[in-house]
Amino acid sequence: VMLVAVLGGLLGILMMIPLRRALIVEQHGLLKYPEGTACAEVLKAAASREGLDEVAKPEDEAASGGRTIFAGFGIGFLYQAAMGAFRMWKDTPEKVFGAPFKAGSISATIEPALLGVGYIIGPRIASIMCAGGVLAYLVLIPAIKFFGEGATAILAPGLIPISQMGPDEIRGAYVLYIGAGAVAAGGIISLFRSLPTIWHGLKGGLSDLRGGKAQSANAPRTDQDLSMKFVIGGCIALLLVIMVVPQLHLQWNLLGALLIVGFGFLFVTVSSRLTGEIGSSSNPISGMTVATLLLTCLVFLFVGWTGPKYFVTALSIGGIVCIASSNGGTTSQDLKTGFLVGATPRLQQIAILVGALASALVLGPILLKLNDAYTVYVPATSFQKVEAGATPPRVQSASLPAFTDQLKPDTTGNYRILKNEKGGVNSVVSGLEPGDYLVNEAGEVVYKMQRNFPADLRAPADAELGTPEKIKGAQAATNPESYRVWQRIDPAGGPAQRYLVNAQGEAIYLVDPGINGTHRTRPDGSSVEKFDAPKATLMSYIIKGILSRKLPWALVLLGVMIAIVLEMSGIPSLAFAVGVYLPLSSSSPIFIGGMIRWLVDRWLRKQKFKDHDLSTDELVAEGDKSPGVLLASGYIAGGALAGIVIAFMAGVPRLVGIRRQVEEWSTAHNPFFAGANADLLALVPFAVLCVMLYLVGRDLLLAGQKRKSLTNAGR
């Protein structure tokens, strides 16, 4: 992760330097570079006498805005810490429906960051995303449960009958593939839609480069770049590092290096020009990355590079080109700002290189730590305590088969297996869903068994196994053994994921990552957060779909058809597909944030600007300048920082023990965290966050001297 970030970031900056004069100087007035121009105007205003006078005012707009951001940061941090670290209330209230709507469910991860994201992206995209979640959780999952309820056979790629699955199991076995297919189709459709823009940017960028003037030795200070010797030497050095380091699986792979150079310079040129025309926020970086992966995988398929090790090679090429393209565009914005304020490009370029290196070195370990902290090492069988009140169900256990697995629940004693099959002889056990259960020596049904992968799953004799590694994160203290890594690519007979295997090749643990993982409970019962990254899923499915050709294509194609239907209906398929892929618990707070933004914008239109004839775009711009956006930004920053701190706590055994004690106390004594009404009570603090966001958006809270927009001043 860190290598790709460092190498891609530096390569993109170096490749953009030869384009500076052609795009920034020669095209001045034609390429606007909106973000870079805005930054230049801010710097000029701050340096002017009038700007200094404005800053001196105690209650000016800037001071009030700063207070709003820091207030949001503090509120978001304290809220997330209280919920995530001290377990003061439940973090994901939910409601699972019963008959006649079995397996239907609604839920919300009530985090300030998600609420802030919804407010910033606005009601339209937030609604489309949530609609995708509604389709997944209130249509697809109940439909799969309805049609599969009576089936006793296992429907691949599931591992247990649908009759024994809950909403999360159905989503993990089937709906995730549908969502991934929709995301892949939406990404590819977005790529084709942006092809004219990309082609226009490429053609214009290359023609500008050919027409650019060479740098003179006596060029003025404001026109001095890093020398071409440094640029070319740096690019060659980076390519050598890319080819040498073993982590990228590109050891002296000349074809891979050529693909990086070709796609890298191509899309850096495109990105640098497009940011000048449409801005960084509209730059189709994901489309360029999808194109890179598609073409790279097709080249690999043509030359016969289809083994699992080439998955990492293709991903490394795509990741480096993606980051290079992104950095090329943002570097153009920085250099445009410097051009407008009279900076020295050479010094800017040095600073940008140092900044890219430093940020990658800092953020890389943080991402890895977050992933490790929330990674779950899933055994073949996990156990869920049967909630049966004071009188647990009892059965005659003498005739039941003994439970002989090595891994047992955290308790002593011997167990027998009860197969409570629908319509079978044991279905008379009242209060129990169909499934496999453990019965203790007294005949009490105490645990429900969850089969995560076949107990006899093992790596083939010819499988390529990775270097030995130990369990990381919160589970590290439970098992000090080292295991080999097996990357399983065939979904038949078990999840196609990463496994830890012993010396005999037997799968001991399924490694469910913190990023894009699906298991939200550790074997000891403690809950785990997961970080969903739909674009990463899109890229993984492109790679696996082309190189391995071993995917549940029926489910994937269902998702593709959903995306096509949406496009035919005039609805952006990618945003909807992301909602299908993400848990509804993630998209529902985003939807709530979007609805608060809709209420604030509605007030702006009907009250604050009722006497002004503003266009829709002007109203949106006024909404973007509202203090609610500042508070939402603070929510995001504060909640995210608290989440990082909590994640680092998960790597300290002593703090993990303290947190477990806090969770046990809250489970026993805190009605906001556990109990019959916890799902409703937990919404109270979240409602306070929502009300504050609405009031701040309307200038009824945290407002200093009355804010006056540029629009009002001009009318």
Structure description:
The protein has 715 residues and is of the alpha+beta class. Among the domains are: 381-451, no CATH class; 456-534, no CATH class. Helices cover 57% and strands 7% of the residues. The chain has 23 helices and 11 strands. α12 runs antiparallel to α13. 42% of the residues are buried.
Estimate the mean pLDDT confidence: 83
Strand order of the largest sheet: 3-11-10-9-8
Low-pLDDT stretches are 708-715
What class do helices, strands and sheet pairing give? alpha+beta
> How far is it from the N-terminal to the C-terminal residue, by CA?
51 Å
Biggest beta sheet summary: 5 strands, antiparallel
Kindly estimate the percentage of residues that lie in beta strands according to DSSP.
5-15%
- Portion of residues in helices? 55-70%
Judging from the principal axes of the Cα atoms, what is the shape?
globular
Number of distinct helices = 23
Question: How many β-strands, per DSSP?
Answer: 11
List keywords for this structure.
four-stranded antiparallel β-sheet, 715 residues, five-stranded antiparallel β-sheet, disordered C terminus, alpha+beta
Short structural description:
The protein has 715 residues and is α+β, with helices and mostly antiparallel strands. It has helices spanning 2-16, 20-25, 34-47, 49-56, 61-84, 112-121, 123-148, 167-211, 228-244, 254-278, 285-303, 308-341, 345-373, 534-547, 553-568, 573-581, 584-608, 616-624, 627-649, 653-669, 678-681, 683-697, 710-713; strands at 94-96, 105-107, 376-378, 381-385, 416-420, 435-439, 445-451, 469-470, 482-487, 498-501, 507-512. Among the domains are: 381-451, no CATH class; 456-534, no CATH class.
